[in-house]
Amino acid sequence: MSSIQGTLAEWRDRLRRKELTPAELVNLTADAIEADRTTNAYISFDREAALRAAAAADVSSPLAGVPIAVKDNISILGQPTRCASRLLSPYTAPYDASSVRLLKKAGGIPLGRTNMDEFAMGASGENSAYGVTRNPNAPDHIPGGSSSGSAAAVAAGTAIAALGSDTGGSIRQPAGHCGIVGLKPTYGRVSRYGLVAFASSLDQIGPMAQTVEDAAILLQAISGHDPKDSTSADQPVPDFEAALGKDIKGLKVGIPAEYFTSGNHAGVSEAVRNTVSQLESLGAELVEIRLPHADAVVAAYYIIACAEASSNLSRFDGVRYGQRAQDVNGLMELFSRTREEGFGPEVKRRIILGTYVLSSGYYDAYYSRAQKVRSLVARDFAEAFKKADIIVGPTSPAPAPKIGDSALDHLQTYLADIYTIPANLAGLPAISVPCGSVKEGGAELPIGFQMTAPHFREDLLLKTGFALGK
Questions:
Q1: How many whole angstroms from its chain centre is CA 434?
Q2: Residue-wise over 163-197: b if at least 16 C-beta within 10 A, else e?
Q3: Which residues are catalytically annotated?
Q4: CB atoms < 10 A from the CB of 199, how many?
């Protein structure tokens, strides 16, 4: 399999020095996508559209004409936006998502719709109508999800960098499993306009890249206030690249007891503790903290996320979007058969759960209580950040399991998000950087190290990740 060798920063510099043209780089990337017979990272790509954009690219712009892969739930004008679902297979986006518009404005060229768990519901990359995505480090293992294709493409070298979306860890967990950098920005830092919603109060678009520097460059391009998104934050966007290269002496690193437990895989624990020691050797100060409601985050998240999914996906009824069931008798049969034929098992499972917790007699018992837990989780972080500048721990409690294992125990799959979910519930920025690997069955499986910062302090995460040499 051919691959694109070089980081976003390196290709940007080469384009600016006119060592090659954006069109030549687009062709190199497209050739690598076509040659990949392993990962199934892409659902589709449009070489000709990317070449037309490359012809007009300004190499002096922030992204200089570098092609960027885009997750299949982020709208690109004139291209399919299927969310890896049969239901949306005939749908073509009539507009650009704000993140894509900003990407283009910065000189980036969208190239490729990456595979994902259907409607971003899943943590393994197995729940796609277009086939399972495979981990390029170990093809019989999952790459993580739901941004499985974006992670696999960057790790395999068929994308220089990519956009993903994160609802409960869907950028960071696959980044950790594939050995790349994945950053979930603060809720509101990047516009959600044009992102097909799974859970509106949790979803956030972010960069997936080979290095922390690349993540900073891509985050810079897509950040900013957007009047088209009522949840977009009117906050100044700092120079994220300028944060890189600064020392972290005196940085207070929070070590939560709840993230360092015997339930973690031994190899994960060792790699994470080694990275903590590296931070200490760089001058950081380790601080013990507590996150008392950590054991309740998974239950609260799945109640809230599924409730919002039940509401958001009600628009897919065979009338307005996507495919429509044929030979039906009346609206009710149209709705039910369209959804039965179009949605996959995991999406149906979450819609049913969400509808149940919102139903009369159960709202207070489940949904209302979950929202109270969410407030407590946010309060836990607020208290912790009085003592610490960042909070660290594993991205996932175990390395990537084999393909097929997730289907055997759905509850265990949901529990795999235990360390990534809290940042979404609290709206905080968090990053996963590679911190080693473990060998299992002859495969080298990457391990992710997660760092979480206060609201709108992505610069702290990037500075610390860069100091670690990532």
A1: 15
A2: bbbbbbbbbbbbbbbbbbbbbbbbbbbbbbbbbbb
A3: 71, 146, 170
A4: 24
Name the H helices within 282-416: 297-312, 331-342, 345-358, 369-384, 410-415
* Cβ contact 366:303 at 8 Å: yes
- The Cα diameter of the chain in Å comes to 70
**Nearest CA to 105 among 213, 195, 224?**
224
Q: Are 299 and 305 in contact (CB under 8 A)?
A: no
**CB of 413 closer than 8 Å to CB of 123:** yes
Query: Which of helix, strand or coil describes residue 435?
Result: strand
Q: Is 359 a residue whose pLDDT tops 60?
A: yes
Of all residues in the chain, what percent carry a pLDDT higher than 90?
89
Report whether pLDDT(132) > 70: yes
Per-residue buried b or exposed e for 389-400, using 16+ beta carbons within 10 Å of the residue's own CB = bbbbbbbbbbbb
Q: Please choose, from the candidates 210, 117, 215, the residue with its C-alpha nearest in 3D space to the C-alpha of residue 158.
A: 210
The confidence score (pLDDT) of residue 407 equals 64
* Kind of pairing between the strands at 430-440 and 181-184: antiparallel
Tell me: the pLDDT tens digits for 365-401?
Answer: 999 999 999 999 999 999 999 999 999 999 999 999 9
Model confidence at 1: pLDDT above 60: no
State the sign of the Cα–Cα–Cα–Cα dihedral 184, 393, 198, 137.
positive
327: left (phi over 0), alpha (psi -120 to 50) or beta: left
Task: Judge whether 399 and 266 are in contact, CB under 8 Å.
Answer: no
Question: Using CA atoms, how far apart are residues 169 and 194, in angstroms rounded to an integer?
Answer: 20
Neighbours of 74 (CB within 10 A): 28
- For the stretch 315-331, pLDDT in tens is 998 888 888 988 889 88
d(CA 81, CA 160): 21
Question: 258 pLDDT exceeds 90?
Answer: yes
What was the pLDDT predicted at 441? Answer: 82
